[in-house]
Specification:
There is one protein chain. The protein has helices at residues 6-26, 32-44, 48-56, 66-79, 83-100, 105-113, 125-140, 147-167, 173-177, 184-193, 200-213, 220-229, 261-274, 319-356, 363-377; strands at residues 237-246, 251-257, 286-292, 300-305, 308-312, 314-318, 392-401, 403-413, 416-428, 433-440, 446-451. By secondary structure, the chain is α+β, with helices and mostly antiparallel strands. The chain has one domain (3-463). The strands form 3 sheets. The chain has a 5-stranded mixed sheet with strand order 6-7-1-10-11. It has a 4-stranded antiparallel sheet with strand order 5-4-8-9, with no helix packed on it. It starts with 5 loop residues before the first helix and ends in a 19-residue tail after the last strand.
Length: 470
């Protein structure tokens, strides 16, 4: 085929295939957000099997959302009392996200011709850190052998992200400040180090990091004081750590936004890197993903032993705030990518019209215009995300006498406890930590309360690490 015949051949192909193209482009365009809503509703209602069933209905290949489905499945498995399965899923996604970070040029071009959903999803920055955080927490519910390494990975990953953002050409000071180290990694490493007299110096250093990185954490100063001047465990006692997954976590939804000056400058750079054309003026709104957060309906989870309240959890990591802060900082680039996609699509249609030299009202011109409108209409914001995260990860540390204790967990708001208490038994060993985890999206807990397996002497091995919630 001669080069000069290419536009005519393209036109012939387009006009013959127009009905089929329109059908393909306008079908299966439901966003990940639309598909995630019923999963969230089932999960927060305590219907974990229903949440799994809804998750399996996400079969749109266009979305390429298998990894985020695995993340949500990991949370369901964890809530069901299956930390081993949850850890396996989280490790798979962690490794896949690391691979997906190496975005190919072909995928970048595909993003400009279609939308962000064509790219292999590499996770939001906060998700990459939280995968490693939950790997540490799930491992604590099992052997605990790898929890410290996972916690260190979370810290290292956040530092890597912070360094990358600081080096970005268009990064502004407010964007750099939106990223800060999270304290949950050193918190986990400190509590693990306190179990051995040989690693108490490591525990103290980690407690210093917690106090510096999370100055608003209620227990930071008391923990640091104990680590520097006191023994971590008194004779005849052990420590219970309660990790509470509080509230309903962030989700990404599609919104329409007008391009800002900052986003237009970035879009112009994207266009310049992919063609020799400049960026034409544009005022029409574009579809972009935006993080939506949900303030929790409870303040904390109260822990009672023998009918007496010993304390309430405090927020160690505000997941929703972390996601929102990073999303706001990254928002101009998301708008820029959407603007660049619109410009490239219009450019293709205009180039095709010029190639066939068609009059404005010819069948060819009208057909190409219709195709262009349909093409732009298929641009869907990339709302893929880890949709079953909690809004906050809270923690409480209490010391208890060695032996078996009946504990009760209750949602708390203000000075009162609300909702039904969850009762179970824990065993405390001399100088050892026992870990408890529960999901409290609101006043009623979801799923099962997990208890660390490597400390408890369990009579029924088949029921290891789980206690049913009535």
């Amino acid at each position: 085929m001669h080069v000069s015949d290419f536009p005519k051949q393209l036109l012939l192909l387009v006009t013959r295939s127009l009905p089929a193209l329109l059908l393909v482009m306008t079908s299966g365009c439901a966003s990940h957000y639309t598909r995630a809503v019923p999963v969230r509703e089932a999960f927060y209602a305590g219907n974990l099997q229903g949440a799994l069933a809804q998750l399996e209905e996400h079969k749109d290949r266009r979305l390429r959302n298998d990894d985020v489905k695995r993340l949500d499945r990991a949370m369901i498995e964890l809530a069901q009392g299956n930390p081993q399965d949850a850890e396996r899923l989280l490790r798979t996604v962690r490794d896949q996200f690391d691979q997906n970070e190496q975005v190919s040029l072909a995928e970048e071009a595909g993003m400009l011709l279609a939308d962000g959903n064509v790219r292999a999803y590499a996770g939001e920055d906060y998700e990459k850190v939280l995968i490693r955080t939950f790997l540490a927490l799930t491992n604590l519910m099992r052997t605990g052998d790898d929890a410290g390494a996972y916690a260190l990975q979370a810290t290292d990953k956040q530092q890597e992200i912070m360094d990358r953002v600081a080096k970005r050409d268009e990064a502004k000071q407010e964007e750099i400040l939106a990223y800060k180290q999270v304290a949950i990694g050193p918190y986990i490493r400190a509590m693990l180090a306190e179990e051995s007299p040989l690693t108490l110096d490591d525990a103290a250093r980690a407690r210093v990091q917690v106090a510096n990185w999370a100055p608003d954490f209620r227990d930071a100063k008391a923990d640091l004081q104990r680590a520097q001047y006191e023994a971590p465990h008194r004779p005849g006692e052990g420590t219970l750590y309660l990790f509470a997954m509080v509230g309903r976590g962030p989700v990404k939804e599609e919104v329409a936004e007008i391009a800002t000056q900052a986003s237009l400058l970035i879009a112009d750079r994207i266009i310049s890197n992919n063609s020799d054309r400049g960026l034409p003026p544009t005022l029409a709104p574009v579809k972009v993903p935006k993080v939506r957060t949900f303030p929790p309906s409870i303040d904390a989870v109260a822990l009672s032993v023998g009918g007496r309240e010993l304390g309430r959890t405090a927020t160690l990591l505000d997941v929703g705030e972390m996601a929102r802060r990073q999303s706001d900082a990254h928002f101009p680039r998301l708008i820029a990518e959407a603007v660049a996609r619109r410009v490239v699509k219009k450019g293709f249609i205009y180039a095709a019209k010029e190639g066939v030299d068609a009059s404005p009202w010819s069948a060819a011109s009208v057909g190409l215009s219709a195709l262009g409108v349909a093409w732009e209409a298929t641009d869907t914001a990339d709302t893929r995300c880890w949709s079953l995260l909690p809004d906050q990860i809270q923690v409480l540390r209490v010391q208890l006498p060695v032996g078996e204790h009946e504990i009760a967990l209750s949602a708390a708001r203000g000075s009162a406890t609300i909702g039904p208490p969850v009762r179970t038994k824990v065993s405390i060993a001399q100088g050892r930590n026992t870990y408890v985890m529960g999901f409290f999206p609101d006043q009623r807990p979801v799923g099962e309360v997990l208890i660390s397996q490597h400390v408890l002497p369990l009579e029924n091995p088949d029921n290891a690490g789980r206690v049913n919630v009535p």
